[in-house]
Amino acid sequence: MTRRKLILGSSVLAGTVVVSNTKLNQASAQPSQASTVAIEPAISRQGRLQGQVAIVTGAARGIGRACAVALAREGADVVTLDIAQQISSVKYPMSRMEDLAETDQQIKALGRRSLVIQADVRNSDQMQAAVDRTIRELGKVDIMVPNAGICTYVPSLDQMSEAEWDDVIDVNLSGVARSMRAVIPHMRERKQGRIIVVNSCNSRFGSPGSPSYNASKWGVLGLIKCVATEVAKDNITVNAVNPTGVRTLMTQNDEARRWANPQNPTQENLENALLSFNSQSRSFLEPEEIANALLFFAMPEAAMITGEAIDVAAGANVRWNS
Questions:
Q1: pLDDT-based confidence at 39, cuts 50/70/90?
Q2: Angle, to 10 degrees, between the axis of helix 211-231 and the axis of helix 175-190?
Q3: Which residues contact 315 (CB under 8 A, 6 or more apart)?
Q4: Model confidence over 257-285: pLDDT tens digits?
Q5: According to the model, what pLDDT value does residue 226 have?
Q6: In terms of C-beta distances under 8 Å and separation of at least 24 residues, what long-range contacts does 271-274 make, across chains too?
Q7: 299-315 residues labelled b (16+ CB within 10 A) or e (exposed)
Q8: Which of 2, 54, 77, 218 is deepest in the core (most CB within 10 A)?
Q9: Which residues are catalytic?
């Protein structure tokens, strides 16, 4: 096994953003049987988030959609926010308005209110307008889930473009900060709130080929710990979920396969790289598994947990001690 293949399991393929857990594009090969698993969503008979309002960024597909639907299943009304268009430096297909509409339909099918907002987390005015509209139309914001994120696959830091650096930092790190800044004054006023960031296991180690992604995820981990101390007295918690590789279009594309093994960029090599990194017998996790873990931080039992990050890593987390 090549060094690059091994690192792939611990690098840019740690989950995030405007990506899809639905039918992959035609360029995507079928996953190996060993890595395919049917994930049953956590079905609540209690609706423990009944009456709450959540905003999920990057909600059109993938992890964002899974989080939005999981929150709705627990009784929350959900604002689904997404850029729903392509960023030119990103080489895999990003979400479209049709994807956002599908998330909206799935939430409404659960009997919950859903508000669709097309907005860019890189724009503070748009994020503030999204929060203001949510308060105006749904009455409040109880839960903010900054999930939007992108990834670029590059040979090394000195061989990446300015856009490949700037766009990733602006979405993955600054976008999380803007999402927080837009909602914190409202949560402070109400003396309650939950901010739950979908981050990445890439916040735990260094790896080659994704310098902007790694930097952004380490930055998010520091951000949540800082902000958690700033808002704790206002009964606001700030936590993160760190996935290992998740089966979305951000990881299931030709760029990722070439990054894993330029000489033989196959789906099998991609799957095997993750299998070699995760301790459990799984390659890529499913978005619903990340959403199920995220729900914990929204529940009453997590009221005294803040500034924390939980690794949903199929045992890959045994490789680090922080």
A1: low
A2: 10
A3: 278, 279, 280
A4: 887 778 898 988 888 887 778 777 888 88
A5: 98
A6: 271/31, 271/32, 271/34, 271/35, 272/1, 272/5, 272/32, 273/1, 273/5, 273/6, 273/8, 273/9, 273/13, 274/8, 274/9, 274/13, 274/35, 274/244, 274/245
A7: eeebeeebbebbbbbbe
A8: 54
A9: 213
* Domains and their CATH numbers in the chain: 3-20+47-313 (3.40.50.720)
Torsion angle, CA of 273/274/276/281, rounded to 10 degrees?
-140
Rounded to an integer, what distance in angstroms lies between the CA atom of residue 85 and that of residue 101?
13
Q: Which range among 6-15, 45-54, 263-272, 294-303 shows the weakest confidence by mean pLDDT? A: 6-15
Average pLDDT, the chain: 86
3-state helix/strand/coil string of the chain:
CCHHHHHHCCCCCCCCCCCCCCCCCCCCCCCCHHHCCCCCCCCCCCCCCCCCEEEEECCCCHHHHHHHHHHHHCCCEEEEEECCCCCCCCCCCCCCHHHHHHHHHHHHHCCCCEEEEECCCCCHHHHHHHHHHHHHHHCCCCEEECCCCCCCCCCCHHHCCHHHHHHHHHHHHHHHHHHHHHHHHHHHHHCCEEEEEECCHHHCCCCCCCHHHHHHHHHHHHHHHHHHHHHHHHCEEEEEEEECCECCCCCCCHHHHHHHCCCCCCHHHHHHHHHHHCCCCCCCECHHHHHHHHHHHHCHHHCCCCCCEEEECCCHHHHCCC
Does residue 254 surpass a pLDDT of 60? yes
Going by C-alpha positions, the residue among 67, 98, 102, 60 that lies closest to residue 82 is 60
